[in-house]
């Protein structure tokens, strides 16, 4: 009996986490909330997020919320020629343009 309750609780937690992540992504895409900017580092691993804005005079402006995971080289290996930091983009989500209207200048709203 207690095993069924534990499985039910774990399934409910997984479902809640999945729905919360989906709702958060949808709110970011619709522009209901601003994308968070953060950077956290534990040892050699760093997680960073930012909003990347790509603007052009020809094409419409696009903004993307990205999350990167970066791994720094070992300090001992940093002295060698083969030591490299590497990173992987985990999330890239198109979001509403965060540029305020007063900074757009002569462009139409």
What pattern of helices and strands is seen along the backbone?
Answer: HEEEE
Strand order in space, largest sheet: 1-2-3-4
- Biggest sheet record: 4 strands, antiparallel
Separation, N- and C-terminal Cα atoms? 60 Å
Tally the helices.
1
Choose one word for the global shape: flat
Determine the mean pLDDT.
82
Rg for CA atoms: 20 Å
Number of strands: 4
Helix content: 25-40%
Strand composition percent: 25-35%
Uncertain ranges: none
Total separate domains: 2
Class derived from helix and strand content: alpha+beta
What can be said about this structure in brief?
This protein has 109 residues and is an alpha+beta fold.
Which features does this protein show?
109 residues; single chain; four-stranded antiparallel β-sheet; 2 domains; alpha+beta; 1 helix
Report on the structure:
The protein has 109 residues and is an alpha+beta fold. The protein has two domains: 1-33; 35-97, no CATH class. The protein contains one helix and four strands, in the order H-E-E-E-E. It has one helix at 2-30; strands at residues 38-42, 45-54, 62-71, 86-95. Strands 1-2-3-4 form a four-stranded antiparallel sheet, with helices on one face. A hairpin with a 2-residue loop joins strand 1 (38-42) and strand 2 (45-54). The radius of gyration is 20 Å and the shape is flat. The termini are far apart. The mean pLDDT is 82.
């Amino acid at each position: 009996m207690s095993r069924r309750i534990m499985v039910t609780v774990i399934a409910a937690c997984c479902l809640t986490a999945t729905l919360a992540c989906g709702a958060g992504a949808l709110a970011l895409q619709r522009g209901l909330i601003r994308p968070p900017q953060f950077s956290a580092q534990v040892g050699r691993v760093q997680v960073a997020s930012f909003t990347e804005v790509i603007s052009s005079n020809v094409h419409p402006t696009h903004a993307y919320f990205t999350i990167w995971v970066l791994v720094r080289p070992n300090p001992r290996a940093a002295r060698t020629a083969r030591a490299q930091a590497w990173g992987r983009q985990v999330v890239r989500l198109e979001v509403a343009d965060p540029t305020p209207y007063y900074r757009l200048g002569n462009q139409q709203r």
